[in-house]
Structure formats: C-alpha cells, structure tokens
Amino acid sequence: MPSKKIQHILESQQFNRHWLLTQFFPEVARMKRLVEVKGVSSALSDKTVCLLFYEPSTRTRISFEQAAQKLGAKIASTENASEFSSAIKGESLADTIRVINSLKFDAVVIRSDMEGGAVEAANVSQIPIINAGDAAGQHPTQALLDVYTIFEHFKRLDNLKVALVGDLKNGRTTRSLAYLLGKFKKIHFDLVAPAAFQMKQDILDYFDRHNISHKRTKSLESVADQVDVVYLTRLQKERLKKNSKVNGNGVRLNDKVMAILNKKSIILHPLPRSDGFNEL
C-alpha cells in the first residue's frame, strides 16, 4: 500500500485467505448481530467520514451512509462530484483529497470515475481511503460483501464453481471477486461473456500465475448445470462508445437457463440491472 502507517482499502489483492476466514468473517457476523439486536453502536461516535462519489450511485453510497450512521459516525457526502464539486472547475483529485485531510475527517470513501483513482487519492492522504469503485478497475468492498454472502450460504469457499457472467471487460465487481475467490482452493471460474466483453488479460494472467482453473465461454446455458454460483452483471453502457453494437445472447438468465440450473446453486447480482443485456 502507498503508506505503511495508514490502512487503506484499495484492491482485493491486499486481503489474504487467513484474514478473511479468521478475522473478517467473524467480525461481519458480529456486526450483523449488532444491527439485528441493537440497531446502532457508538463505536465511531467520535469519527467523521467523507463520502466522495464522482460517479452516480444508489446502493453503495447509501449503504456507506447507513453503515457510518449505525456505527455512530457523522458524515459529509457529495454524489456525482464530477459535476457538482470543484472538479467541474478543474480541481485535481489529489487537491480535493488534500482539502478533505485538512478538514480533519477520519476517513474518505471514494468512488472514482477513473481507474486507479483510489490509489491516487491514497498517495496524498494522511487518513484512510476506502475504494468504493474506480471506473473499470476494482470494487473491493463489493467483493468482500460477495465472498461473505457466498461463504454464509455454502459454509466454505473452497471447491466451488463460479460463473462470472456479463460485461467482464468493463465490470469492476467481477474483477475484484475473481481476485478474492482466487485465494481459495480448487476454485473454478466460467467466464461467460460475448467475445467483445470477455475478461481482461490481467485477470487471465493472474489465473495462470496461480494455477486457477478457468474457461471462457459465450453461453451461460452451457455451464448452468455445473456451477455453484452464478454472478450476473449488467452491460456497462457508460463505458461504451455511442452506438456500440451489443449482443447479449448467451448471458441472460432466462427460463431455459433456470430449467437446467443446479438446484443447489445461488444467483448473485451487484445491481443495478439494466436493459443492455437484459440479463435478468
């Protein structure tokens, strides 16, 4: 990480299997019980959190707001900061982060509209940066949520077959999830996408370096009866050129796929769903 003294959450690669199993999962279970029983906590009552979102967001932004408030923290937030902040006047991300530091916030949750934005912010920050999605780069907090959801259901993360489906080229959630699940034993990935939207080479190289089983295919139907997890994603329209031709055949979860889907499997979607692939 850019700083040894400050703990940032920037990418899925920074977490290891041992930490997930022995620290993160037990803490998540404890926090769930806390919310269910008490509803709120004073754990962060002396903290302030800045939510800096350069891209529009619904679930991620309000989830962080709710989490901070449930823990007693105070928040300041901006949504679509690329239009409604000093970024429109030409202010750099680095300068914005310096200002937030000077205002004595305790952490920054950032959704960047450029890949690598969270790392750029961390390079100049003296307070923790939490990456809530950086363009087509990564979304590590979503991946942490996803792996816990899968673990909670199966009580394991080893020996699973996972279909990553949809816009794998531009979707950050599948990239982060691939890095995290790749840390477990005998994981197999079916990469289901039209040719123009297949997974980028850096993830394929990661699979090869770590001998992680994977296969590329254009058809969800061809693997539906074999997988434990179907992870659907939408078409990332905002990252495509105007008038781009899109063929969503093969990546839709329709009645035909449902009829052959492994009955013990689970279906996840980070949302929002859209009409690009009509994947649901």
Separate helix tally: 9
Overall form: globular
What is the rounded distance between the termini? 38 Å
Helical proportion, percent range = 25-40%
The low-confidence runs, each spanning 5 or more residues with pLDDT under 50, are none
Supply Rg: 19 Å
Oligomer: single chain
Structural class: alpha/beta
Calculate the mean pLDDT score and round it: 90
How is the main sheet built? 5 strands, parallel
Order of helices and strands: HEHEHHEHEHEHEHEEHE
Number of strands: 9
User: How are the strands of the biggest sheet laid out side by side?
Assistant: 7-6-5-8-9
Strand content bin: 15-25%
Structure in words:
Strands 7-6-5-8-9 form a five-stranded parallel beta sheet, with helices on one face. It is 34% helix and 16% strand. With 280 residues, the protein is an alpha/beta fold. It has nine helices and nine strands. Helix 5 links the parallel strand 3 (107-112) and strand 4.
Keywords:
alpha/beta; 280 residues; five-stranded parallel sheet; single chain
Layout of strands and helices, then pairs:
Layout: H1 17-37, E1 48-53, H2 59-70, E2 74-78, H3 81-84, H4 93-102, E3 107-112, H5 117-124, E4 129-134, H6 140-154, E5 161-165, H7 172-181, E6 188-192, H8 201-209, E7 213-217, E8 229-232, H9 255-260, E9 266-268
Parallel strand pairs: 1-2, 1-3, 3-4, 5-6, 5-8, 6-7, 8-9
